[in-house]
Structure formats: structure tokens, C-alpha cells
Design goal:
- The chain is an alpha/beta fold.
- The protein is built from eleven helices and 21 strands.
- The chain has three domains: 150 residues, Nucleotidyltransferase, domain 5; 72 residues, Dna Ligase, domain 1, CATH 3.30.1490.110; 117 residues, ATPase, nucleotide binding domain (Nucleotidyltransferase, domain 5, 2-Layer Sandwich), CATH 3.30.420.40.
- The chain is 29% helix and 28% strand.
- The strands form six sheets. The protein has a six-stranded mixed sheet, with helices on both faces.
- Strand 14 and strand 15 form a beta hairpin.
- Helix 4 crosses helix 10 and helix 6 runs antiparallel to helix 8.
- The longest helix has 23 residues.
- The radius of gyration is 34 Å and the shape is flat.
Length: 457
Amino acid sequence: MGAEKEIIVAVELGSTAIRAIAGKRETDGIMQVLAIVQEEGVSCIRNGVVDNIDKTTAAISRVVKKLNEALNINTTRVYVGVSGQSLHAVKNHVTKTFEGKTLITAQMVESLRETNHGVIYPDAQIKEVVPQEYGLGTRTITDPVGVQSEQVEGRYLNIIARSSLSENIERCVHNAGLEVAGMPITPVCLADFLLTSNEKRSGCALVDIGAETTTIIVYTNKILRQLVVIPVGAADVTNDIASYNIDPEEAEMLKLTYGNAWQDEEQEDKSAKITLSHNRSIDATMLQEIVEARYEEIILNVWSRIKEHNDKILSGIVFTGGGSKIKNLLEAFKKHTDVDKQLRVAKGMPVNVTLAPTVQTGDRNIYSLIGILLKGDQNCVGEPPSAPREVQTELDFGMGKEEDVQPNKPATTEEEPAQETPTADTDPQPKAKQRSLGSRLKKFWGKVSEMLSEPEE
């Protein structure tokens, strides 16, 4: 495929599937998605974390191979999103006091950031630092450089995760024969993709209901204020249904087809039965109670993290993820909380992304995957491996070709039988055929000896 130097490749490690995507950034900045492939049912990622190194390595190898075959490229490096249950944000303050009023410089601000970066968290690493505001006495500003004060306080939001999270991802990618181009934080990528600049400025919360986790991220005044991952998701609803001796695949179908996050009692038909396989059935009311109970748990957990920002999220709450596809999710959120803000489920494709005609997304939720892709700024493909060149074993010692060396030979003896110099007409084996290095050298030096032993006339 042409213009390979412009292709970016990203991988998302999901609990239900591992996906890979390739895209090309056009001159106007718009990202064109060239191909999307996936491996489903890999069972190697749990709660967004690598659970099985070998299986994850194999799955990454397979999805990248599919991508290479689809686009006729040779992927050498990939961007991999970082997510998982251990990912969360922690606030930290760093203060510097002066003897008198002092002009705050960029070097002072950088010193505060370096001090914050040096904070050590038990069994965790800082993945990203988001500066909040700076405190100057009773004032709070976003840029303190050039302002006089006796004290400056840097306020930071440190996004941290378990130390092994990135280490295991890097190990799997390297074992798959690839390089890690970057590991952006998936929820931040998703928010940058789905939320507009106006929504971030006026305040907005993004709720990503995944299979095994639900991620909440909050922006106000265009600054990230909250990031937390709770260990419950849409797969828990499926597992609850499956606990009634129902096959997991059938339980997933029941959830998507008949499940509601909220249903008025007046609309319920308490006598209805839903037919299952093997001549079985389940009471529709019982199924609804199972689904509602688990979604109520998810909603209350989400609201407990968002309500402290309720008066500042003027643009409301945006829902995404596979779990947001359940019927009546927004109605359920309103019933279980006292939220008075606008609620919506993310749909469609933002204007900064286009899909190539051959890309089919189906009903897959690919927002996170595209968000990771948009963070890429390095070429991720190399030249396709070329066919190995034939090794030339003929040696040239600077004395001309073997046929050109024709010294006068002495009479042969019994110990050293005469050797005929093959010609193009008599040599039974073509000259292009390879000979062993040892025999070539022996023959060459034999001819040199014959020339040196020739008596002078």
C-alpha cells in the first residue's frame, strides 16, 4: 500500500475482545480509518489488565497479522491504550514559600512539577500528571508565571496505576515482535475524542460502561478533575442472568433483547414468559428485576463519584461503552439520582474522523479504539520484508578468473595426479553452481605453488 510512512496503528486490550486499528492523518488533520480487526473471546484480559501473558501475546500477533494482510503493510510498532481497575486519579499539592514577595518564574513552576513527579506511591506509578490551578495566597490562577507572591502552591491530579500494568503490556507487545510506540491513557483518549471543547469548558462528565469495569471522567474549566474506574460493568448483568442455569451466550442475548435498565410497573406484563433453549422458559418479570438491580448498582456507584461536581458540570453527562446500549438507561439514571443535568448517549462519529469505504464497524463500540489512534503521531509501519538475496560464493582474489590462470604444468606424479582445468564445454557442472570454500582455496593455492615451482630457463 502506498504512503506507508503516514500510517498509525493502535491496539486496545479489552475484556471481551482485542482490537487493532490503522489510520492515516490527512493534510487537513482529519484521521481516516483504514481498517479495523479484532480477536473475540480471547479470555486473557480481566478488568482491563493483562491476565495471561502468553494468550495476550498471541492475540496481539493475530490482530496485527490480520491488519497487515488487510492493508498489505508491515507493522513494526503499535500504540496500546492503558486502562484497568487500578487506574485512578489522586490529588497532590506542592508548596514553595519565599522570604518576601517574589516574582514567580517558569523555572519555579517547573520545579514544583518535578517535585510532584517525584512522589512515590506504593506499588503504583504515575502515568500522567494534570496540572490544576496554582494557589497564590488567597488567589487561585491557572498560570502563575509573572505574578508576585510570598508563596506558590502547585495543585496536581496524578493519574496512577499498578506498576505491573504497563510492564505486562510492554512484555506482550515485545513478545509479539513489535515495538511500543506509546501507551496513552484510554479514558483520557476517549474523552478527548467524544467531548467537545465547549463541553469540557462548561463542565461535563463521561461515563464509559464496559464489560467488566465502568470508568468515570470529569472535566470543568477544560481541566481534568476526576478519573476513577469501578469494578462493575455490563458483563455482571450477563453473569447474573447466567446464574439461573442459563448459557452465557443466551444470557447475553436475553439482556440485549429483553433487558431494560428501567421499566414502569404499568408497562410490565407479569404473566409473560420468555422461551429459552431446550424447551425451557424464564419469567419476564424476574429477568427485568435481575437487569434493573445490577444497573441500579452501576448507576449509584457512578453518581457517588459525580455528584460532588454536579453544580459544575453544566453540559451534563455523556454515556458510552457497550453497557450504555441497554434500553432506558437515561430514564434509570434520572430515577435513581437527583441529577438535573442533560443526559445523552454518545452516537455517531465526530467530524475529525472519517472511515474508508471498506471499513465496516457494525454494532461494535470503537470509540476508545479511535481515541487511542488519534493520540498517535509516529509512523508505525516499515518496508515489507524483501526476499533474501542469493549468496554468491565465488571468490575473487585479484588474479583474474580461474580459467584465466593457465601456467605451464610440470609432469604429474603418482602422488599428485594431473588435474584437468574444466572448460565451458567440458565441465559437467555449471560454473554458477556453488562449491565449498575449502576446495576453492585448496585449488587456488595449488595453482600458485605450481607457478612458483616452475624452473627458470
